[in-house]
Design goal:
heterodimer, A: alpha+beta, Alpha-Beta Plaits, 4-stranded mixed beta sheet, two-stranded antiparallel ribbon, 10 strands, B: flat
């Protein structure tokens, strides 16, 4: 199915951008073992709270990346599909952006990723409802409050100072570790050079023991990630919605 | 019920009551704003003016500004580097907290004044690299005792400068006016 060209309907501005992005990711599902190291690393890096058993029971778990698995076939011939780490796809044509009444989720013009501005967010949750990948998570409580989360007294010592600690009532999602992008760019600029490919990685890519997650510039044809995403077995999930995902999954490469 | 209250408010006694309520609200707001704008008390009433007039550069005590996000506040050991050789350390009424901090190995709990909220990620380095000087944002510290912000440090103030400096340069405009440059 062909992606829908939103510009045909008169949509313009931030939600329509050229097909090429800036930062992108390749996730090799054949290498992923489902070990959840990326999930943990992401939560540590980005101050993603633990919601506790009760809230998790209500489906309020907060993860910026999760490992999805599905079963296919009829019983008894059931086969598990490869693990699929699902995170914000940083869509070039993001469905979450036009529905935000507060302009809290906007497209970054310089990094060409999808931003979430926490101090602007009023918590309507329209963006989460409109996200086909279901990767946005909402702060239902002040998980930084000791009355809500009694483990936080010790856990708050490991907050990452480079990332905002979100409060109740705001939406949050994967940022492609924009704090690391900025830090790498800042260091490169201080040394008077360009950011090198592979110089830094988001927390999930750094933690992946199988090296299944590769991050880099997709507008640079020589980078490792853009060589990977140009392989024949690369797929974009829900691409038919016209979202222009920036995360490419490599699946079935061995067969 | 409501109409009788409105009627009473238009009578002399009601007008006096309205005036009192109005004055209370306004003075409460004024007091609140005043509290928010007051410079907090510091462990030592640090005279920036004396140190700057001796020719000590800002970066001697706040060296982080050229390297990274935070300029840093000096530890007692940094003060002691000069002050242990100075007569005034024994005589000045301001300095017993410093001597006590050194003797007990306790920190001086400076209260940061030039601060941004948690949801703003500020970095000193690119600002200095862009050719800004300390006094462009922090005012004339050479005339100050305890540091005071010369203006309210809010987003409008940041953006004014970002707009001015990026005007006419689309590449810089993209970067400097992007939400994700400061908020993540």
């Amino acid at each position: 199915m062909k992606p829908i060209d939103l510009s045909l309907f008169g949509a313009k501005g931030a939600i329509v951008e050229a097909a090429e992005g800036k930062w992108g990711m390749a996730i090799d599902q054949d290498l992923c073992t489902g070990c959840q190291a990326c999930v943990v690393a992401c939560a540590m890096e980005n101050n993603v709270p633990f919601v506790g058993e009760i809230d998790a029971g209500y489906g309020r778990s907060m993860h910026w990346i999760r490992i999805e698995r599905f079963w296919e076939g009829e019983y008894p011939e059931i086969r598990m599909t490869p693990y699929r780490p699902m995170l914000c796809q940083q869509c070039g044509n993001a469905p979450c952006e036009p529905v935000c009444p507060a302009y809290a989720t906007v497209h970054s013009q310089s990094e060409r990723i999808n931003l979430q501005v926490y101090n602007r967010c009023v918590g309507t949750r329209y963006c989460a409802n409109n996200c086909p990948y279901q990767v946005r998570s909402f702060n239902w409580r002040d998980y930084t409050d000791e009355r809500v989360n009694d483990a936080i007294a010790t856990l708050k010592n490991q907050y990452n100072p480079d990332v905002t600690v979100r409060r109740r009532g705001v939406m949050e999602k994967c940022t492609f570790c924009i704090q690391r992008i900025h830090r790498a760019q800042d260091r490169a600029k201080a040394e008077g050079r360009e950011v090198q490919d592979g110089e830094f990685a988001p927390a999930c890519a750094q933690a992946c023991p199988a090296d299944a997650i590769v991050f880099g510039r997709i507008d640079d044809l020589r980078s490792r990630v853009s060589r990977l995403i140009r392989q024949k077995h690369g797929v974009h999930y829900l691409e038919e919605l016209g979202t222009q995902p920036r995360v490419t999954y490599l699946v079935g490469g061995a067969s | 019920m409501i109409s009788s209250v409105v009627k009473w408010l238009s009578e002399p006694l009601g007008r006096v009551a309205l005036l009192i309520v109005g004055l209370t609200v306004i003075s409460g707001a004024a007091w609140g704003i005043n509290v928010l704008q007051t410079t907090p008390e510091q462990p030592i009433e640090f005279p920036h003016v004396r140190h700057v007039s001796m020719g000590i550069p800002c970066l001697y005590c706040h060296p982080g500004a050229t390297r990274g996000p935070s300029a840093g506040l000096p530890s007692p050991m940094k003060c002691w580097g000069c002050h242990q050789q100075m007569e005034i350390t024994k005589t000045s009424p301001l300095l017993p907290p410093l001597v006590a901090a050194i003797e007990n190995g306790t920190p001086l709990r400076w209260v940061p004044v030039a601060q941004v909220p948690d949801f703003v990620q500020f970095n000193h380095r690119p600002h200095l690299a862009a050719g800004l000087n300390c006094e462009d944002c922090h005012g004339n510290v050479a005339q100050m005792t305890i540091y005071q912000n010369p203006q309210v440090m809010n987003m409008g103030w940041c953006l004014n400068c970002h707009r001015e400096r990026s005007a006419g340069n689309p590449e810089l405009e993209k970067k400097l006016l992007d939400c994700g440059t400061c908020h993540y």
